Every structure is written in structure tokens, then in C-alpha cells.
Amino acid sequence: MFARDHIEYQPADLPDRMDYSAEKSLNEAKTFYDRMKRRHTVRDYSDAPVSRDVIEECIRTAGTAPSGANHQPWHFVAISDPAFKKRVREAAEEEERRFYEGGAGDEWLKALEPIGTNDHKPHLEEAPWLIVVFAQRWGHFDDGTRFKNYYVPESTGIACGFLLAALHHAGLVTLTHTPNPMRFLNKMLGRPESEKPIMIVAVGHAAQDAKVPAVAKMKKPLDEILTVAD
């Protein structure tokens, strides 16, 4: 955390040590991969409710992510109110229409064709929860004095990864939605100018007839994403 008062470095013993054997480390890595490869981006949601407690615990997990200078430059807004979700959807679809009507460019639209997306975003209303992620570009002390945050996109991106993993671990499905620009969210959600909305995460349970793009299961093999220097 950052504070106006000078805080000196004080080393502390590592509180949560996990000294696994090589075999257990490999087993744990494989188990986590087996779980995470079952994560899917889902656009079809059931009306099954999700408790606020679950959402809060998953966001609590996101808040444990590492960040530049430990400034933790993020804020999450969780929305379950149907009227609020409707407003988010309407504003997001307005941005998306501009995107699909020429703002994106032909190459980008062609890349999206196998995903089957368009400017129609019913999941933003149908999912029981929306989590809006804001990146805090700078912060303020109690007296209004401004201070800088560091590695904000990287830090917030890591926190988003933690969030998605936590939601999946809780048995929920998600969709990451990134209309651009999303400044309408600042005014709608009462967030300050210092924060930039970077993602809307739709969260819930998959509908019984939920579909996913076949291409989404086509992941690059390990030898295409890994280079080892040993």
C-alpha cells in the first residue's frame, strides 16, 4: 500500500511457504491445467442465481494479485440490479454498433467471424452479475493530493486473470467484454476520472443449451507458445 508517510522496508519471514516435492509440484500443475482447460467463454446464461458472497470472495482473490510498488491500482464494481444491467447493455451496444459498422476495420471483423459475435449483447442483462474492472491510473491522499500508480495495465491485467480463475474455480462461467471506449461506465457507476474501465465480466451459470464457438477450443500447442533456455 502507498501512504503519504514514509514507510521503510522491513523484511518479514515468508508466511505461507509451500515446499512441495518435485512430484507433487508436477501433479499440482497438471491438476490446475486440467481444471483451467475446462474454462469457456460463455454467452448463454441461465437464470440460476449466484450469491453476493461468492462474487465477493472471487474479487477478494483478485485483490491478492501482485502489482507495481504494491499500489493495487484497481477497483471492481459488481452489479446485479436488473435495471442497472440493462443500462450497461444499452450503452455497450451503442458502442458496439459503431465498432461493427466500420470502426473496427475489415481485418478485425474478419478475425471475429469464427467467434460469431455481433453488436447484440443480451448476456449483459441475462448474466446474474456483471463485474466492471477499473484501472486506477493515479490515486489521491485524503487531502486530495495526487500520486502516481505504476505498471497499471500490467497489474490490473494480472488481477483480472486471478478473478477469472477464481470465478471458474467457483463453478461459474464468464465472458470478458471490452467495448471501446467505455467512458460511459465512469459516469454511470460514479467512478473518478483517474480510473479507466477496461473490462466488463459477465458472470453466472451456463444455460442448458449454451453454445461456444468451435474455434475457441483450438489452442496453440505448447511448442508454439514456449521457448526454453536451459
Automatic annotation (TrEMBL):
<dbReference type="Pfam" id="PF00881">
    <property type="entry name" value="Nitroreductase"/>
</dbReference>
<dbReference type="InterPro" id="IPR050627">
    <property type="entry name" value="Nitroreductase/BluB"/>
</dbReference>
<dbReference type="InterPro" id="IPR029479">
    <property type="entry name" value="Nitroreductase"/>
</dbReference>
<feature type="domain" description="Nitroreductase">
    <location>
        <begin position="37"/>
        <end position="205"/>
    </location>
</feature>
<protein>
    <submittedName>
        <fullName>Nitroreductase</fullName>
    </submittedName>
</protein>
<keyword id="KW-0560">Oxidoreductase</keyword>
<dbReference type="InterPro" id="IPR000415">
    <property type="entry name" value="Nitroreductase-like"/>
</dbReference>
<keyword id="KW-0288">FMN</keyword>
<keyword id="KW-0285">Flavoprotein</keyword>
